[in-house]
């Protein structure tokens, strides 16, 4: 089981474009085309499945919102920050 990080630890380690929202980290990726966003969401899903840590993904017309938290641990852990970095690599 991973250790929940303090808000200060999360803020120090959070990558550009990500924000802390209570016990989640959130980023909205913007796209010029709906299908580009859908393809990105599919890529995020593949990475998440490989890591066996799954985000909440909301697909909008020109944006995809990704939310990460470690439900079993009850907050944000290193797993969430690692996955956020991997998603940014896909973008």
UniProtKB/TrEMBL annotation:
Statement: the UniProt record of this protein carries the keyword Manganese: no
Gene3D superfamilies to which the protein is assigned, alphabetical: Transcriptional coactivator/pterin dehydratase
Lineage: Archaea, Methanobacteriati, Methanobacteriota, Stenosarchaea group, Halobacteria
Keyword Lyase: yes
PANTHER family in the cross-refs: PTERIN-4-ALPHA-CARBINOLAMINE DEHYDRATASE
MF (Gene Ontology): 4-alpha-hydroxytetrahydrobiopterin dehydratase activity
GO biological process annotation, one example: tetrahydrobiopterin biosynthetic process
Protein's name according to its UniProt entry: 4a-hydroxytetrahydrobiopterin dehydratase
Natural source organism: Haloferax elongans ATCC BAA-1513
Keywords from the UniProt entry: Lyase
InterPro entries attached to this UniProt entry: PCD_sf (IPR036428), Pterin_deHydtase (IPR001533)
EC number: 4.2.1.96
Entry similarity comment: Belongs to the pterin-4-alpha-carbinolamine dehydratase family.
Substrates-to-products reaction catalysed: (4aS,6R)-4a-hydroxy-L-erythro-5,6,7,8-tetrahydrobiopterin = (6R)-L-erythro-6,7-dihydrobiopterin + H2O
């Amino acid at each position: 089981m991973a250790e929940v990080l303090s808000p200060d630890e999360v803020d120090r380690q959070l990558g550009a474009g990500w924000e802390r929202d209570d016990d989640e980290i959130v980023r909205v990726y913007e796209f010029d085309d709906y299908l580009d966003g859908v393809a990105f969401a599919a890529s995020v899903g593949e990475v998440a499945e490989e890591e066996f840590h799954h985000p909440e993904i909301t697909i909008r017309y020109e944006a995809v919102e990704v939310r990460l938290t470690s439900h079993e641990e009850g907050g944000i852990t290193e797993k969430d920050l690692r996955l956020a970095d991997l998603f940014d690599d896909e973008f």
